[in-house]
Amino acid sequence: MKFNPKTTIAIIVLLVVIGGAYLLLRGRTSTPSPTPSTPGAAPSETSAPASESKATPPTSAKRTPKTYRILMTPTGFEPSNLTINTGDTVTFFNNDQRLRWPASGMHPTHQICPGFDALRFIPRGESYSFTFKTAKECPFHDHLLPTLFGKITVLP
Q1: What domains are there in the chain, each with its CATH number?
Q2: Model-level pTM greater than 0.70?
Q3: SS3 content of the chain, % helix, strand, coil (to 5)
Q4: Is residue 43's pLDDT more than 60?
């Protein structure tokens, strides 16, 4: 049996379209709601016992983690560079008509900051959040549009 190259290409394109539609629809069912750009009320923290508080300088008090927002726009990420502290969360909110996919560098492996990868399409109006637990520089990009990129610097 001889295969027509046009038919083979059409079948491959059809399979890619069906697979993409499946991934798109599957991602919509488990979409997290956008988080506010300002930190919410955190649970109260208990103080250390008096004997420990004497040994600990007042500057080492635990701080409340914050949530930051990065907008994904048609021109890129806003802001494209952000400095945060360990334990802070960054929410990537899609404000673009196109599907977006924020992830750690380097494209396409996303291994510089393990776990920082949406692993799915983010439609307009939806978001992806990640809490940074390690102090380091985390370059990031849009997996679907790798020419759009930025950097999050995580301080200790």
Answers
A1: 63-155 (2.60.40.420)
A2: no
A3: 20, 30, 50
A4: no
